[in-house]
Design goal:
- With 188 residues, this protein is α/β, with parallel strands linked by helices.
- The protein has a 6-stranded parallel sheet, sandwiched between helices.
- Strand 4, helix 4 and strand 5 form a beta-alpha-beta unit.
- Helix 2 runs antiparallel to helix 6.
- The longest helix is centred in the N-terminal third of the chain and has 13 residues.
C-alpha cells in the first residue's frame, strides 16, 4: 500500500489540511494518508500549542468519515523533538509492506536542507510537494514531485487568533473539531 505521511502540529487541524490531503492522495497515487501529529516540531515554539492528545483527537474527529485517512500518534512515543527521518525509518521498519511518501508544502523546501538527514529522505522516500501562497513553484530537488493542489491561505495561527478574539471559525474547521475546541475551551 502507498501511504502518504502528512506531518504537522495540527494546532488545530482545519479544512485546508483536509483539502490538501485529499488532493495529494488522489493526484499522488496514494492509497492512504496518515496524519502524523507531531508533539514537538524542532522549528516551532511550544507556546499556544494545545496538548498533543487534544490535537490527536481533533485529527480523529476531522477524518472519521474518510477511510483513506488515518491519525497517527507514532511520534508521541519517540524522542523529542521529532525528526522526520527518524519517524520515516521507524514506520518503514514497522510496516515493511507499505511504501511511504512524505508530503509537505512548498514553504518547507526553502529550509529543507536544514532538516536532519534531508538527503536520506530524498534518497529513500518519495517527496510530494503542494504549492503554498507566495512560494516558488519549483522544487530545487530533482527527487521532489510537485503536485497540483489548490492554493490555500488558511493557517492554524489565524484560526487560534480568531478564537482568542471571539470571532467565528465556522467553515474553517470541520464541525466536530469546532465543537471539540468549544467544549474543551482550547485556544482561549
Amino acid at each position: 500500500m502507498k501511504v502518504g505521511l502528512y506531518f504537522g502540529s495540527f494546532n488545530p487541524i482545519h479544512i485546508g489540511h483536509l483539502i490538501i490531503a485529499q488532493t495529494i492522495r488522489e493526484r499522488g497515487g496514494l492509497d492512504q494518508v496518515w496524519f502524523v501529529v507531531s508533539p514537538q516540531n524542532p522549528f516551532k515554539k511550544q507556546e499556544s500549542l494545545a496538548h498533543e492528545l487534544d490535537r490527536l483527537r481533533m485529527v480523529e474527529l476531522a477524518i472519521e468519515d474518510n477511510f483513506h485517512f488515518r491519525a497517527s500518534d507514532v511520534e508521541f512515543r519517540m524522542p523529542r523533538p521529532s525528526y522526520t527521518i527518524d519517524t520515516l525509518t521507524y514506520l518503514s521498519d514497522k510496516h515493511p509492506q507499505h511504501q511511504f511518501s512524505l508530503f509537505m508544502g512548498s514553504d518547507n523546501l526553502s529550509h529543507f536542507h536544514k532538516w536532519k538527514n534531508h538527503q536520506a529522505i530524498l534518497d529513500q522516500y518519495e517527496v510530494l510537494v503542494y504549492p503554498r501562497p507566495g512560494q516558488p513553484k519549483n522544487a530545487n530537488y530533482p527527487q521532489v514531485k510537485l503536485v497540483e493542489a489548490p492554493l490555500l491561505d488558511i493557517s492554524a495561527t489565524f484560526i487560534r487568533q480568531a478564537i482568542q478574539s471571539g470571532y467565528s471559525v465556522r467553515y474553517l474547521l470541520p464541525d466536530p473539531v469546532e465543537a471539540y475546541i468549544r467544549d474543551k475551551k482550547l485556544y482561549r
